[in-house]
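Quick one: structure for this chain?
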Amino acid sequence: MKMRKIGRDGPAVSAIGLGCMGMSEFYGPREDAESIATIRHALDRGINLLDTADMYGPYINEALVGRAIQGRRDEVLLATKFGFVRDPADPDKRVIDGSPAHVREACEGSLRRLGVDTIDLYYLHRIDARVPIEDTVGAMADLVAAGKVRWLGLSEVGAATLQRAHAVHPISALQSEYSLWTRDPEGAVLDTCRELGVTLVAYSPLGRGFLSGEIRSFEDFAEDDYRRRQPRFQGENFARNLALVDAVRAVAEAKGVTPAQLALAWVLAQGEDIVPIPGTKRRRYLDQNISAVEIVLNAADLAAIDAAFPAAAVAGTRYPAGMMALLDR
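Got it. Here's what it folds into:
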């Protein structure tokens, strides 16, 4: 496995990680046995970055990851997130809590569910508009001082917030959506990451699976698949975005790779300081994703991809309005 780095002074990390969210929620039925096998297979293949969050499930994905890594803790760079508070009885209800008291409470809960003494990379999942970022990161820094957390991260924050947070304690990673169809970090955010030595951890690098080319109609989503509620997968947006994916497919076929592998290779080609974390709960897709690490894209390949899927060509916002409002820009 090729390696990259988390932060300026952080640990070595596999060039791609494994996003574990969909193993417990959002993308159809759970398959816990296959999910655990997939996590262990990822470790066998040299992936060391596992990404979860307390809110996934809600509150069950961390326990799944914890079971999967029993006896193999030293092989894992374990990343989790806090900030969303959900009601298990009504998971659609959610608030953001970035208060120092919740920082401490959430960390203890994650440590317990994961079955570990220390979290390697601890992210604030979304900023709490009611709490200055300095207060939240200050409490996160206290966790580092206490030995409960090793490195700090933020998720979906803008350049100004990242700078303010970094002034309180070094931020090692910024986790934001980044792919051919979500290029929001380009410009000020990515420039600031590079100025501060912050690694961009790219979630949904396959456009929530759409860039794989295997989703051909809205009916391909299970009834409980949350993509049914996302604007990019609805109505005319679906058809327009599918045409973009088909254009990428043509480039991939000319290259002799799958559309998903091409999309991952494109993210990897954007810089050694970017680490994509494609999610899957099946070993066969994991192996396909890992193969993308070996794909070399030359200038002609990159130009062909940009022509097939120009920046900002995607139709629809990436979240419904309520979730879009939680993004810091």
